[in-house]
Amino acid sequence: VTAQQPLRGDVAVLVPAAGIGSRLGPGTPKALREIAGAPLLVHAVRRLCRAEGVACVVIAAPAGRAEEVRALVEPEAPSGVTLLVVDGGPTRGESVYAALSAAPAKYPVVLVHDAARAFAPPDLVERVAAAVRSGHDAVIPVLAVVDTVKEVDADGRVVRTLDRTALRAVQTPQGFRREVLLAAHRAAGVANGVTDDAGLVEHLGVAVFCVPGAEAALKITRPSDVALARALAQVHLDADGGRTLSS
Ligand code: CTP
Ligand code: MG
Fold first, then answer.
1. Which of 74, 122, 176, 219 has its CA 20 to 30 A from that of 40?
2. What is the pLDDT of residues 71-119, one digit of tens each?
3. C-alpha dihedral over 141, 143, 149, 154, to 10 degrees?
4. Tell me, what DSSP letter sits at residue 214?
5. What pLDDT sits at residue 232?
């Protein structure tokens, strides 16, 4: 616990962390697997809590593991941050909705952040929250696409080559005015196939604003991502001048 008490603000972050991590291979649910000395979820919560606008973190835990998750993350939250843990659902969308339903209504800015993007830097969190505060209903962090992307049919034939300069890879945290995110989830219902929350908002016809993403916010998905994440974790701890929370 640091002596300096950071300013606390208007942001609640929902953290879907209930996935099993099938693409990473068999084992513990992905958010609870360790990289660089701590479970992914702990790395994620540490960085979220270092963003000064964040006043509340709501975690959607893997089935049956809520108490274990609470014990893991509680030591990581500064005293000004409210920490809540709920049971996640069978899909990411249901996990986000469970967390959203538990988030106190007093936070006007709601971010949704994948536990699997455990090394997203605090300044990215700030950047997304600031864009919502400045008047955007929905905000996503994006990166340029490095590969050429083609549309391909079921027989493996190329239909068309997309214009790469107009494409962006989308990360989290995604930020929303609370009412907008609630309306989007309620309109979509449980059985929607949308993989990100901004996608639900787009269905409402609400404009979504892009801000620059961060390489360190990669989604740890496949085994090779683990090595990369380990390296990026180190870079960012150093870039923060060693201002790490004691473990
Ligand atoms: N997630 C969740 N509830 C689910 C499924 C996913 O909260 N039912 C969360 C994951 O824990 C993760 C985020 O959504 O933090 C992004 O999902 P993904 O990277 O696909 O994680 P997994 O679903 O665990 O991985 P996989 O698809 O490889 O099984
Ligand atoms: Mg998944």
1. 176
2. 999 999 999 999 999 999 999 999 999 999 999 999 999 999 999 999 9
3. -30
4. -
5. 77
CA distance 62 to 77: 20
Rounded Cα distance, 31 and 243, in Å? 23
What are the tokens at 216? Answer: 């360190």
Mutate to test the pocket of ligand 1, among 13, 15, 20 (most ligand atoms within 8 A of CB): 20
Instruction: Write the pLDDT tens digit of every residue in 9-29.
Output: 999 999 999 999 999 999 999
> Which residue's C-alpha comes closest to atom 13 of ligand 1?
114
Give whole-number Cα distances, 167 to 45, 60, 173, 210, in Å: 30, 30, 19, 12
- 92 CA distance to ligand 1 middle (Å): 6
Q: Which residues line ligand 1 (CB under 6 A)?
A: 16-23, 30-31, 60, 88-92, 95, 114-116, 219, 221
Q: Which two tokens stand for residue 202?
A: 């787009």
